[in-house]
Design a protein that fits this description.
This protein is α/β, with parallel strands linked by helices. It has eight helices and four strands. The chain has two domains: about 120 residues, Rossmann fold; about 35 residues, no CATH class. The protein has a four-stranded parallel sheet with strand order 2-1-3-4, sandwiched between helices. Helix 1 links the parallel strand 1 and strand 2.
């Protein structure tokens, strides 16, 4: 009977396409992970992170899930606990590269990771609050949010006039190099 090779399964996540995975991927490759799963998604919940789900589902007894940074795995205390539970239930281990001093094989170590997950969740909520307050202040000062309108004031007036004269929005959209919705919003 041959024994199955223990695998190292890596996981990395960023929140937006503008962020880079490279630092995390370098760390996981240095650990010689057999497979690496990558998500570009919010860390607020397990939902919407298909690659984390795949990584957890791949775990077998003796395997090790390697995570470069714990707050990349979760920004929620409950999800952190769920991740740890799934790893333990699979008979696997977890190693968090930015928390190597924590013994995740012990209940105290896992409890400490739950605490770190709660702190990450608190930080996420504080970021949301600060961002919301900043947007509110900016709106009160008259700052327009969202992308800039694609037509200038002269083009908008001309588009409105031409629409009123019966020209098709599709024709005007092609003429100005914008979508029909942009033409309709100019009204």
């Amino acid at each position: 009977m041959t024994s199955r090779k223990t695998r190292r399964i890596g996981y990395a996540r960023v929140s937006t396409k503008a962020q880079e995975l490279e630092r995390q991927l370098r760390a996981l490759k240095a650990e010689r992970c057999d497979e690496i799963f990558k998500d570009t998604a919010s860390g607020k919940s397990l939902a919407g992170r298909p690659e984390l789900r795949k990584a957890l589902d791949r775990l077998a007894p003796g395997d090790e899930l390697v995570i470069a940074e714990w707050d990349r795995a979760t920004r929620s205390m409950w999800d952190g606990l769920q991740i740890l539970k799934e790893i333990i239930d699979a008979g696997a281990q977890v190693r968090v590269l930015d928390r190597t001093y924590i013994d995740l094989t012990s209940p105290i170590g896992r409890g400490f990771m739950a605490f770190i997950s709660a702190m990450a969740e608190d930080e996420r909520l504080r970021i949301i609050k600060r961002t919301s307050e900043g947007r509110s202040i900016a709106r009160d000062k008259g700052v327009k949010m969202g992308p800039k309108f694609k037509l200038n004031d002269v083009q908008k007036a001309e588009a409105r006039r031409r629409l009123a004269d019966g020209e098709a929005a599709a024709h005007l959209a092609k003429l100005y190099g914008v979508s029909r919705a942009t033409i309709y919003r100019a009204q």
